[in-house]
C-alpha cells in the first residue's frame, strides 16, 4: 500500500473539503427546504477572493478568510431574500431559480477575474513538500486536513451540543412545534442559508489551492457536493462526512488503482449504494 499513501492522503483532503461544502448544502436543503443549485457559486466566491488576496504572506490569510466568508455569507443571505416568493414552492421552481442565479453569479465572477483558472499562492512555509514515510507531500494539504477535521468536529458539536443546533435539528423534524415555541421559522431559514453560505465561502478560501478558482469551479463543486448529499443523506453530519471521504478516495485513490475506469467509478459506486439502500441492505447513518 506504500505507493498509494499519497493518493489516499489526497483523498482525505479532497473528501474533507467536499464535506465542508456539502454540509452547507445539507443545511440549506434539509432545514430551509431550499434546493440551492447556486451553492457551488458561493464556494467560487471564496476561492476567487483567496486567489485575489493571496500574496504568499501570512497577513493575507486572515484577510482572505474574513473577506471570502463575509462575501459568501452576504450572498447566502441575499439568496434567502430572493427565494422568499418560492420558499413554499416545489423544488423544481427553486432549482430553476437558483440555477439561473448560479449562471448569473458565475458570469459576474468570470467578468471580474477573467476566463482563466487562477493560481493561489500559499504562505512560503506551507508551499513546500515535507517528508512523509519516504514520500514528499505538500505541507499545505496536511495543514488543511487538520483544519478541516477541526471544522467537522466543531460543526458536529454545534449541531448536537448547542441550543442553536438543537433548534436547527428541531426545525427539520417539527417546524410547527418550533414556531409554537416562539422561534420565528423565517429567521431560522435565513440564518441557515447565511451559515450555509459561510461554510461554502470558508471551504472556498481554504480549499482554493486544492480546487482552484476557474470558470468550471462552481459546477464541479456543486456536482460533487450533490453526490455527497445523495450518498450521506440530509439528516446526518456523520453520514455526510463518511460519504464525502468515500467520494474523495474514489476521486484520488481510484485514479491510482484503476486509471482507465476512474471517470466512471464515482457514479458506479453511487448507483450501487443507492440500489443497496433501496433494497434495505444499507441503513442510513443516524441523525447527527
Automatic annotation (TrEMBL):
Membrane-spanning ranges: 12-30, 37-54, 60-83, 95-114, 138-159, 190-212, 218-246, 253-276
Membrane topology reported for the UniProt record: Multi-pass membrane protein
Localisation per UniProt entry: Cell membrane
CDD domains linked to this entry: TM_PBP1_LivH_like (cd06582)
Main location: membrane
Keyword Transmembrane helix appears in the UniProt entry: yes
UniProt KW Transmembrane keyword: yes
The entry's keywords: Amino-acid transport, Cell membrane, Membrane, Transmembrane, Transmembrane helix, Transport
Pfam family, one: BPD_transp_2
Similarity-based family: Belongs to the binding-protein-dependent transport system permease family. LivHM subfamily.
Protein name as catalogued: Branched-chain amino acid ABC transporter permease
The species this protein was found in: Phytohabitans maris
Amino acid at each position: 500500500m506504500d505507493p498509494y499513501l499519497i493518493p489516499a492522503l489526497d483523498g482525505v483532503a479532497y473528501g474533507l473539503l467536499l464535506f465542508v461544502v456539502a454540509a452547507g448544502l445539507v443545511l440549506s436543503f434539509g432545514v430551509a427546504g431550499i434546493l440551492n443549485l447556486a451553492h457551488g457559486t458561493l464556494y467560487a466566491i471564496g476561492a476567487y477572493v483567496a486567489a485575489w488576496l493571496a500574496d504568499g504572506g501570512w497577513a493575507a490569510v486572515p484577510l482572505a478568510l474574513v473577506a471570502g466568508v463575509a462575501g459568501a455569507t452576504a450572498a447566502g443571505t441575499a439568496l434567502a431574500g430572493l427565494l422568499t416568493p418560492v420558499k413554499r414552492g416545489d423544488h423544481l421552481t427553486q432549482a430553476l431559480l437558483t440555477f439561473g442565479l448560479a449562471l448569473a453569479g458565475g458570469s459576474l465572477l468570470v467578468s471580474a477575474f477573467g476566463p482563466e483558472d487562477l493560481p493561489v499562492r500559499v504562505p512560503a512555509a506551507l508551499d513546500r513538500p515535507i517528508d512523509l514515510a519516504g514520500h514528499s507531500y505538500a505541507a499545505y494539504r496536511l495543514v488543511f486536513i487538520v483544519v478541516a477535521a477541526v471544522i467537522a468536529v466543531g460543526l458536529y458539536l454545534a449541531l448536537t451540543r448547542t441550543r442553536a443546533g438543537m433548534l436547527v435539528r428541531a426545525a427539520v423534524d417539527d417546524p410547527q412545534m418550533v414556531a409554537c415555541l416562539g422561534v420565528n421559522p423565517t429567521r431560522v431559514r435565513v440564518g441557515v442559508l447565511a451559515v450555509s453560505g459561510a461554510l461554502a465561502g470558508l471551504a472556498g478560501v481554504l480549499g482554493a489551492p486544492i480546487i482552484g478558482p476557474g470558470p468550471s469551479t462552481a459546477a464541479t463543486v456543486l456536482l460533487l457536493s450533490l453526490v455527497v448529499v445523495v450518498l450521506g443523506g440530509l439528516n446526518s453530519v456523520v453520514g455526510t462526512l463518511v460519504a464525502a471521504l468515500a467520494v474523495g478516495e474514489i476521486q484520488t485513490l481510484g485514479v491510482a488503482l484503476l486509471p482507465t475506469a476512474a471517470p466512471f467509478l464515482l457514479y458506479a459506486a453511487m448507483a450501487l449504494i443507492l440500489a443497496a439502500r433501496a433494497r434495505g441492505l444499507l441503513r442510513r447513518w443516524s441523525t447527527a
